Amino acid sequence: MKLVDTHCHLDNEQFDTDRLEVIERIKEQLEFCVNIGYDLESSKKSLELAEKYDFIYAVIGVHPIDIAQYNEQTEKELETLGKNPKVLAIGEIGLDYHWMTEPKDVQQERFIKQLELAKRLNKPVVIHTRDAMEDTVNILKNHPEITGVIHCYPGSLETAKELIDRFYLGIGGTLTFKNAKKTVEVVKNIPLDRIVIETDCPYLTPEPFRGKRNEPIYVEYVAQKIAEIKEVSVEEVKEITTQNAKKLYGIV
Looking at the keywords, is Metal-binding present (predicted)? Predict the structure, then answer.
């Protein structure tokens, strides 16, 4: 069984010099990967990649850091793009109170608009939340029909237990960091069938490559760490998390 990278950014400029080689490694070593948009332009690029390669899928949306650009025209364009079968979800959307490029009320309003877009398109969502977990959870509670994944899950075990009836937890390279005690606790205590593996490449590179550019095939190191924490085989982690990814994104 091959692994899946459920969250990557192959359109990022860090891949401009060797994107084809990175994509070839994905083809050889992974089941598939999911390229995530963060604004309208990157969403379009994500879909272009997905239409070019059968093992790449797209997610489209506007990240909370870029939410100033979200307006009626953006929403219309995203809704049109979202009807393409290679678009699996709406994301990455959510709240970011760390950078605070827009006030909380603006972020929340446009987060909700994108949740409603996902509902209209009957697609799951990819949630970004940073220093905003309480508000994120409260908004999601008000949209009980929405399912998806909490990307790079940053919360506590207690909050994870509240979310896993509807959401998968995205676990990436930060799990391998020495200061990842909270994430280790979550992985140890949450069922494997609620976890998906991601890279967020080119960011958050796992050990032993921390400090260098991340790429999708490095999900292998995340899988190894999950297996170590949960005291199961790497093969079991691959089998279950790949099936989880397919269920999350509706891939038959």
Answer: yes
